[in-house]
User: Fold these one by one.
Assistant:
Number 1:
Amino acid sequence: MEQTVVEVVPISHATLVLKWGDTTIYVDPTGGGEMFAGQPPADIILVTDMHGDHFSTITLEAIAGSSRLIVPQVVKEGLPASLVLQTTVQGNDQIIREKDIQILAVPMYNLPDAQNKDFHVKGRGNGYVLEKDGFRVYIAGDTAGTPEMRALSDIDIAFVPMNLPYTMGVEEAADAVLDFAPRKVYPYHYRGPEGLSDVTAFKALVHAKNQNIDVVLADWYAR
């Protein structure tokens, strides 16, 4: 069902393209305009946070076209003046609609009692839940397995990070995914200082407790 509703195109690390009917969504576009060669122009661009693996002004200037940019305030503050007029700022827990898609901004952050608590503070960046005609896509961004993530429901496709020390480890990611039980989950954003996280282990941990979750091991680092 998912492939007929939303086509997922992994680009690199945190960057992806979603083709949802006649709407094309770019998420955290980085790497320069050439990374999107052959892709349809974006109708919507979502940026989750201020860090360079999510936010690239050079890339945005190359590919923004007439798209609508949806960003947290901290990202708007870093945008070139040429893009500000086509930008909407969205804060945590706010809902907007664009191209008949409902977009909910979900808090994304490191847990306050963790050693990595200062990398991503609550309220600065956004994860996003996109919904149209009852179909729901969750883009987690840089986050731990927060209560907000675990409380999600009826997610058809999820994109979940796992790269310590910046987000969470494989075990925490699997535990969080088991809590909110998306129909399909893509490990993404899984490169850290020690190399690539073991996404095969993530899949095994999820399937040990719930084989109904489709874990898709796409290659985010081929380019």
Note: The chain has seven helices and 15 strands.
Number 2:
Amino acid sequence: MAFSGCGHVDRKSSLVESSGGDEQVAELPVNQMFSGDWSLLILLALILSAVLRHRALLLITLLVTMATALAWLWNRWVLRQLHYTRELVPRAFAGERVPISVMVTNRKLLPVPWLRVNDAFPETLELTDRKLEASSTPGRTSLSHLLTLGPYERVRWTYEIDCARRGFYFLGPTDIYSGDIFGFFSQQRRLNMPSRLIVYPRVQPLPELGFPGKEPFGEKKVTRHLVEDPTRIVGVRDYHPEDSLKRVHWKTSARQGELQVKVYEPTITQQLVVFLNVASFDKTWMGIIPARQEQAISVAASIAYHATARRFAVGLIANGNVPHSDQPIKVLPSRAPDQLTHILEALAAVTGFATIDIEKLLLAESPRLSLGATLVIVTTVVNEDLLAQMLRLQAAGRRMVLVSMDPQYKGDGPAGSTTYHIPLAEADFAGVWASVEPVEPPAPTDASNS
């Protein structure tokens, strides 16, 4: 049950024998019409018919007993060798539609007289051609099917998921209900077989957002010396008078008995780090504006996409967080082939609550980045603290770019920095905001086979 890139993901399990991995089958309580009182009543009827030599009563009692035994055996075996499969494309962009296919297969000679399948969905996901039913579980809906299956019969349904909202979504568990042909007994099983769907934020061409079509972040290479990357230490050397004390490697100096300084790896790879501010107001307690947040996230994704296409080493740092974590999101700059996927997944999962002010995040994270990296701040709110922090970084030699969606700010940013004003498009993003806390997969339960 491993993900296979951006292709289809198969989810298959027998309702009798789990094939391992994440698939878990839980047997739930059996519903039955006949209780212990009914069994006692049948026994008394048999005794009474034998004592009274009442053939009609004896015949009726025997028929009821045989039907009950047949129904009990049928109910016991009806879910054996019954397989349920869910297939879907695991990744999509907001606004796209992805196919999903579910299939039920009866791999035995015994027919299934009735079968109900309830597959749990997050309530924020919708199918384009099928209405999902309400569920007793908060935050969930259900894709339900009621059918009969003959011997070795297979039934498949195919739908399309409308990926209107960014986020992480988990499908499952699946509840299966069935019973005997007489309706005397019934049982249900729960198949914990979660499927994950990641909906990336919308990505737009930068010219459509108002950026210049060529070199919006100063990508043009100039003739200059190699930039040393302070995050990559390749060795040490003797201290020179012109060296800064920040370069001193104190542990090695103590061992050698004389000052030693760090030697950093030189690099000509251009780095671009997107700092995303998810806050809608100066103060977090003032609330959030989901459409503005989604526009900022979309702009950040578009910038990362553009920079990756230009062979930048791209990174992402955001003051939002993933669910159940209070740490800001951080994807270090890299040119790895899957770097853009990591960034888009981080943006898909980010919640709308800021864990730290963006200016404090800049102060904390910028010393860990290469001196030659371009820092791009994407924000819907610009205040004096942010501008002052950008000015200090600019004075320290940092290349700064401010991407503002704040309708109240029309300035040019700190001297020497580049500023872009992106008009708000709240109407375009009103329906693509993700739920604050994506639904998590159900906790696995121990498989129980009968």
Note: The chain has eight helices and 23 strands.
